[in-house]
Recover the amino acids of this structure.
């Protein structure tokens, strides 16, 4: 027989359920309209290219569609959720402050990882310099140099003469056709975002985790673009000044495509005689070291939990990876910089 129950006994209440931790929002409201708009614009370009209405429309449209899909996918990455969030700085305050008070800008980006303003500023500066460089050097000289170097590569890289002639005609048309010039500007926008933004931001995110720190992807992307902005501004603006001070015959159609500013040790070597050493020496200069320092500082102040040493470690690692990549490309195709 079971023992009689105490009439005053009450079942204890269940333990309190812990409140779920709040989750950070996703930037879907910001990125979805942009992603959909870019994707639709890409479809318009592809349709115009297939209908022979837009020259080069298929390639440009494909780039824009990929851009839209990337933005749509990135929109599901949550923003950082930090206590004691600061009020976001205005676009003008960030763009100007990154030159004279970078720590304040990066600290604010930790809580408000805005990156679109810096990204668009980099694109505009790059396009202004690209247009000026093309007009100064002339499209004919740029294309002839490129075709000549391709023809010197030999098999299996060099295409047959008839393909080279088609390539020459196509590239000259790309420089002179207004529709294709718009397409070049749009593909440059996509290339900057993917190769100068998303890929380095992902590598930084991985590097910070390896070094024991903590950073959100959007914080990483903001640091990438805002650490790049002052360097690009210096290179493009001073490059424009030098572009019109020097004779066009003294400018290289390949080496000076990014800037005419020569502030590195590459000036001590001949690219024709020592292409690999020239490229390695070109990575040691005032703006490159400034970029290295600015990125390390950005990771320290812009990351959720990144020490100064971890920031320097990741920044130097990224610099070394880029150096190795460029050295390999130069070793495979040394003729292009001669």
């Amino acid at each position: 027989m079971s023992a009689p129950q105490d009439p005053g006994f009450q079942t204890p209440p269940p333990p309190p359920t812990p409140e779920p931790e709040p989750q950070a929002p996703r930037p879907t409201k910001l990125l979805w309209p942009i992603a959909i708009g870019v994707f639709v614009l890409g479809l318009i370009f592809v349709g115009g290219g297939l209908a022979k209405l837009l020259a080069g429309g298929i390639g440009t449209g494909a780039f824009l569609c990929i851009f839209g899909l990337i933005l749509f996918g990135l929109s599901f990455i949550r923003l950082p959720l930090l206590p004691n969030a600061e009020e976001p700085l205005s676009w003008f305050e960030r763009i100007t402050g990154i030159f004279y008070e970078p720590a304040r800008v990066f600290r604010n980006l930790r809580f408000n990882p805005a990156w679109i303003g810096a990204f668009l500023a980099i694109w505009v500066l790059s396009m202004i310099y690209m247009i000026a460089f093309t007009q100064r050097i002339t499209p004919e000289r740029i294309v002839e140099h490129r075709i000549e170097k391709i023809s010197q590569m030999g098999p299996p890289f060099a295409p047959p003469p008839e393909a080279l002639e088609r390539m020459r005609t196509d590239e000259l048309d790309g420089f002179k056709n207004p529709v294709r010039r718009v397409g070049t500007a749009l593909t440059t926008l996509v290339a900057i975002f993917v190769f100068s933004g998303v890929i380095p931001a992902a590598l930084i995110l991985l590097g910070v985790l390896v070094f024991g720190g903590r950073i959100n992807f959007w914080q990483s992307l903001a640091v990438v673009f805002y650490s790049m902005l002052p360097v690009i501004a210096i290179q493009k603006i001073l490059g424009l000044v030098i572009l019109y001070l020097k004779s066009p015959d003294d400018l290289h159609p390949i080496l000076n495509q990014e800037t005419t500013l020569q502030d590195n040790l590459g000036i001590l070597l001949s690219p024709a005689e020592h292409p690999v050493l020239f490229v390695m020496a070109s990575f040691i200069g005032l703006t490159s070291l400034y970029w290295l320092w600015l990125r390390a500082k950005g990771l320290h102040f812009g990351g959720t939990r990144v020490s100064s040493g971890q920031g320097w470690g990741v920044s130097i690692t990224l610099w070394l990876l880029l150096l190795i990549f460029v050295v390999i490309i130069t070793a495979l195709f040394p003729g292009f910089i001669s």
Summary: Residues 24-79 form one domain. The chain has two domains: 24-79, 89-337. The mean pLDDT is 88.
